[in-house]
Write a structure and sequence with these properties.
Structural class: alpha+beta
CATH architecture: 4-Layer Sandwich
Strand content: 15-25%
CATH class: Alpha Beta
Radius of gyration: 20 Å
Number of domains: 1
Largest sheet: 7 strands, mixed
CATH topology: L-amino peptidase D-ALA esterase/amidase
Number of helices: 8
Length: about 375
């Protein structure tokens, strides 16, 4: 009976997709924290971009020096044949003390043809192995009559709370995250790749938000998902221009230079160059929360568009793409900035206090104190 109980607990810990917000926590907008002037999508999530899917596997078990507080998150641009119907994509780096595999080829071909996976730093090889195994199973011709596959995996360091040396995320976890990815509400906070993440000295992790442009600006949707693990100094934390970090200083702090992965999705038809520009503008949303580029931070941005599909093997010498004109990019830039800022706030307000490796604790930002601080805004 005891062995059965342990197995059930482990299974529950692995499947963290269910509840979008942990009990007792709330998203920033539910707390009255309104970012920007634009309108969120129905879910205020990256999945407001039609076709986008997100899956999490959370690994949380054990205590002491071998405590696992980690996981993997998968993002699929659409639910179809991604290998043969690639989407335009690009990356942009704010500060490079971090890693995302596969971006050399991604930026060379200007497209994404594999699921995007997020995890912790030293689990990149195992997650990449899972991504390759998934693709080999789905596409038996890869490596024979078809091209070889290059996985795209981004990382943040969760070693304050997680036994990073244990490399607790497996290739099977990566496959499960991909196969369980779905549209609809997205679980946030201490889930998936965000299970062990800390931002501004508070527990953080996965956050998401979206904006829908007006009809005259194209009616397109921008969605952002972040894995927030950045912010060296609590006093820098700003929410909707309020100096939250300076006001909430009574909890112990576990903070370092940290990192963040920002994924920007849109249905606006953009090419590689314009997506690179869009990714760079999302950094302004990061900055508005109080983050600065530091020597030890890894701040990596990836943007993709579902507004065009690129055939892996075009039938002719050319294929057609629609591209938004330069003069109509500004609303997209603003939407990316707002969505990124709110996604980071959601990562903080939905995360739960977590005790991890060697008794280290990351405290969730106290929502009662946060409400008091926000009431004092001019």
């Amino acid at each position: 009976m005891k062995k059965l109980f342990i197995a059930v607990v482990a299974l529950v810990a692995l499947n963290a997709q269910a509840d979008p917000v942990a009990a007792g926590r709330a998203r920033a907008r539910e707390l009255g924290i309104i970012v920007g002037r634009m309108t969120p999508g129905k879910l205020n999530a990256i999945t407001d971009v039609a076709g986008v899917r997100v899956g999490h596997v959370t690994v949380s078990r054990g205590d002491g020096p071998h405590a696992a507080r980690t996981g993997v998150t998968a993002i699929l641009p659409h639910g179809g044949d991604l290998w043969n119907e690639k989407v335009p994509a690009a990356t942009w780096v704010y500060n490079g003390n971090g890693e995302m595999t596969g971006v050399l080829w991604l930026n060379t071909q200007g497209a994404l043809d594999v699921p995007l996976l997020l995890t912790n730093t030293m689990n990149i090889p195992r997650v990449a192995d899972g991504a390759v195994s998934y693709m080999l199973k789905r596409y038996p011709a890869i490596g024979k009559s078809d091209d070889v596959v290059i996985p795209v995996v981004g990382e943040c360091d969760d070693s304050t709370l997680n036994d990073a040396r244990g490399r607790h995320v497996t290739s099977e976890d990566a496959i499960l995250a991909i196969e369980s990815a779905q549209s609809g509400p997205v679980a946030e906070g201490s889930v998936g790749a965000g299970a062990g993440m800390i931002a501004y000295g508070f527990k953080a992790g996965i956050g998401t938000a979206s904006r829908v442009l007006s009809a005259q600006d194209g009616g397109w949707t921008i969605g952002v998902l972040v894995n927030a693990n950045m912010g060296c100094c609590r006093e820098n934390l700003t929410m909707a221009n309020a100096p939250v970090g300076k006001e909430i200083g009574e909890l112990p702090v576990k903070a370092s230079d940290g990192s963040i992965i920002v994924v920007v999705a849109t249905d606006a038809p953009l090419d590689h160059l314009k997506l690179q520009r869009l990714a760079s503008k999302a950094a302004m949303g990061l900055a508005r929360t109080g983050s600065t580029a530091r020597h030890g931070s890894g701040d990596i941005f990836l943007a993709f568009s579902t507004g065009n599909r690129i055939p892996h093997y075009p039938k002719g010498l050319t294929y057609a793409m629609k591209i938004v004109d330069d003069d109509h990019l500004n609303p997209l830039f603003e939407a990316a900035q707002e969505s990124t800022e709110e996604a980071i706030l959601n990562a903080l307000t939905t995360a739960t206090t977590t005790a991890g490796r060697d008794g280290n604790v990351a405290y969730a930002i106290p929502l009662d104190r946060l409400r008091e601080v926000m009431k004092k805004r001019p």
